[in-house]
C-alpha cells in the first residue's frame, strides 16, 4: 500500500513537471494581447517611444521569454490576424498591464488596429540589414538641412525595419512620415531587417508629391551669348588734330571732310575737290600736280617755303629806304 501509494504520487508529479524540466529549446514565444497606443500608458510620457520601433510588454512575457532559447536582441513579429498585416519590432520594457501591449501609433495605423484589438506577437530572428530605400511622404522633408544626421539619430529608437511600413520621426517640433520601400540583408531582398549595431546604407527616393521646378527652354540664340559693341559716348576718334599746309592755307577739320570709318577713296575724293577749289583762287598758288618721272630720274622734293616767309621778305625790302648823308662831300 505504501509503496504503491508512493509510486503513484511520484508518477503524478513526474507528469506535472516533466514538460517544464524537458522543455523544447526551440519553442518560440507566441501570445495574443490587447493593443493600445503608448500615449495611453500610465506614467511619464516619452516621445521617443511613440516615434520609434519598440513595444512595451507585460512582466509575464519576460518570464516566458527567459525560459526559452531566444536570441538577443529580442525581436518580434506583430500580426493583425483579421487582415494578416504584419510588421516587426523590438521590445523596450516589460512594464505593461497584464494582457496589454503598447505600440507606437504609426505601427497601429500600419496594421489597421484600433484600441483594444487583439494582436498576435511572436518571437522571430532577422538578419542584419545592409541597405534600405526610403521615401518621405511630404516635400517638407527637403527643408531639413542635414537629413542623414536626422535619420541616424531617429533610427536609434528602432530595432527593425519592415518593407511597406510608414514610420514616423520627430524633428524640430514636426512629425515626418517615411515609407520603407525596400530593405536588403547581405545584398538580398527581404521583408524585414535588424538595424541594431550595423552599418546601413540609406537611399532616398523623391518625396511623395514633389514636382521638380521646370526650367524655361532656351533657344540656340539665347545659349550663344554674343557681346554687342557698346557705344562709347566719349569715344576715341582718330585724326582730331589740326594740320598745316605747305602753301599756308588753313586745313579744314577732318569731321567736315569725312568720318574715320569711311573708305580711303571717299577721303581722297574730298581732297581732290579742295584742290580744285584752290586752283580757282588766283591769290594762292596751286598745289603741285603728281609727278610722272621718267625711268632713272630721281626727285628730292620741292623747295620748302616756311609759313610767313613772303611777309618777311616784304618787310625787309621796305626797311631803310631813306637817303643817307656823309660828313664829307663826295669828291667830283
Automatic annotation (TrEMBL):
Regions of compositional bias (Low complexity) in chain numbering: 252-269
UniProt GO cellular component terms: VCP-NPL4-UFD1 AAA ATPase complex
Presence of keyword Ligase: no
Pfam family, one: UFD1_N1
Single GO molecular function: polyubiquitin modification-dependent protein binding
Region called Disordered, residue ranges: 236-290, 311-332
BP term (GO), one: ubiquitin-dependent protein catabolic process
Coiled coil: none
Keywords: Ubl conjugation pathway
Domain Ubiquitin fusion degradation protein UFD1 N-terminal subdomain residue range list: 29-126, 129-207
Biased composition (Basic and acidic residues): 270-283
Record family assignment: Belongs to the UFD1 family.
The protein's name: Ubiquitin fusion degradation protein 1
Organism in which the protein naturally occurs: Anthurium amnicola
Lineage of producing organism: Eukaryota, Viridiplantae, Streptophyta, Embryophyta, Tracheophyta
Amino acid at each position: 500500500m505504501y509503496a504503491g501509494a508512493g509510486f503513484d504520487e511520484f508518477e503524478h508529479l513526474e507528469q506535472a513537471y516533466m514538460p517544464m524540466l524537458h522543455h523544447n529549446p526551440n519553442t518560440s514565444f507566441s501570445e495574443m494581447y490587447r493593443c493600445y497606443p503608448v500615449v495611453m500608458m500610465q506614467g511619464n510620457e516619452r516621445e521617443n517611444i511613440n516615434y520609434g520601433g519598440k513595444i512595451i510588454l507585460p512582466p509575464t512575457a519576460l518570464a516566458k521569454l527567459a525560459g526559452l532559447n531566444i536570441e538577443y536582441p529580442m525581436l518580434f513579429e506583430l500580426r493583425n490576424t483579421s487582415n494578416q498585416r504584419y510588421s516587426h519590432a523590438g521590445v523596450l520594457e516589460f512594464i505593461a498591464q497584464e494582457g496589454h501591449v503598447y505600440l507606437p501609433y504609426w505601427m497601429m495605423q500600419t496594421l489597421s488596429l484600433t484600441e483594444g484589438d487583439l494582436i498576435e506577437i511572436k518571437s522571430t530572428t532577422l538578419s542584419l540589414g545592409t541597405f534600405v530605400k526610403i521615401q518621405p511622404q511630404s516635400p517638407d522633408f527637403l527643408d531639413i538641412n542635414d537629413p542623414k544626421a536626422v535619420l541616424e539619430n531617429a533610427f536609434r529608437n528602432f530595432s527593425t525595419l519592415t518593407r511597406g511600413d510608414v514610420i514616423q520621426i520627430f524633428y524640430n517640433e514636426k512629425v515626418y512620415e517615411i515609407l520603407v520601400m525596400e530593405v536588403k540583408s547581405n545584398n538580398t531582398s527581404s521583408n524585414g531587417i535588424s538595424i541594431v549595431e550595423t552599418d546601413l546604407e540609406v537611399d532616398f527616393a523623391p518625396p511623395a508629391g514633389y514636382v521638380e521646378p521646370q526650367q524655361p527652354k532656351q533657344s540656340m540664340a539665347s545659349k550663344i551669348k554674343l557681346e554687342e559693341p557698346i557705344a562709347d559716348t566719349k569715344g576715341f576718334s582718330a585724326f582730331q588734330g589740326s594740320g598745316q599746309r605747305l602753301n599756308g592755307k588753313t586745313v579744314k577739320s577732318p569731321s567736315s571732310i569725312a568720318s574715320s570709318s569711311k573708305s580711303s577713296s571717299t577721303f581722297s575724293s574730298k581732297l581732290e575737290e579742295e584742290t580744285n577749289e584752290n586752283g580757282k583762287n588766283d591769290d594762292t598758288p596751286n598745289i603741285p600736280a603728281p609727278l610722272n618721272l621718267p625711268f632713272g630720274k630721281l626727285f628730292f622734293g620741292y623747295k620748302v617755303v616756311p609759313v610767313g616767309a613772303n611777309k618777311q621778305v616784304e618787310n625787309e625790302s621796305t626797311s631803310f629806304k631813306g637817303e643817307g648823308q656823309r660828313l664829307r662831300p663826295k669828291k667830283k
